[in-house]
Specification:
mainly alpha, 85% helix
């Protein structure tokens, strides 16, 4: 099971170091990391819009074609907004991110309520409450929180991904796997 991880140990460590360094830069320069995330997301929306427009021609019926064209145009408008106005895109992404964190917190609390009798379920409560706290911090300070929120969270994610990519092959090497 661990053979594929063992054979790519050096690549995994290299990737981990690169992700870790990118995470450090994102945390150190969160506004610029947020701009980069906004531009990246803009390009993803652009591709999705084009795909919807191309797909529209394969649909049967005027209603289905029109629906796909409208979805594609909506994606393209959002993409242009993110690409032409990346700072405004970061502000918008921050607001979307805050609402996503609120919804995530609601789901974590729902899971806690379903599992509250089980050992370890308290972590779902902690996760849900922490989500509300983070979302509240972002929303209370919005739009100025846009200067740090997206970039910092992307940076933390990159840091953790880097650590995971570094520690897995090293731990497999330590256990002889």
């Amino acid at each position: 099971m661990f053979a594929s991880y063992k054979s790519s140990t050096l690549w995994s460590i290299f990737l981990g170091v690169m992700l870790f360094l990118a995470g450090l830069m994102a945390v150190a320069l969160p506004f610029f990391a947020g701009i980069a995330a906004s531009v990246f997301f803009g390009w993803l929306l652009m591709v999705a819009g084009i795909v919807h427009l191309v797909y529209a021609w394969s649909e049967r019926g005027a209603g289905a074609v029109l629906w796909q064209v409208l979805i594609g145009v909506a994606y393209l408008i959002a993409a242009l907004y993110m690409l032409v106005l990346p700072v405004a895109g970061v502000i918008t992404l921050t607001l979307v991110l805050a609402f996503y964190i609120v919804v995530s917190g609601v789901f974590e609390l729902a899971v806690f309520l379903r599992l509250r009798g089980l050992r370890g379920a308290i972590w779902f409560l902690v996760d849900g409450l922490a989500s509300f706290l983070l979302a509240g911090l972002v929303l209370f300070h919005w739009p100025s929180s846009s200067l740090w929120a997206v970039g910092t969270l992307v940076g933390i994610s990159l840091l953790l991904s880097g650590i995971a990519r570094i520690t897995l092959p090293l731990s497999l090497r330590a256990i002889g796997g």
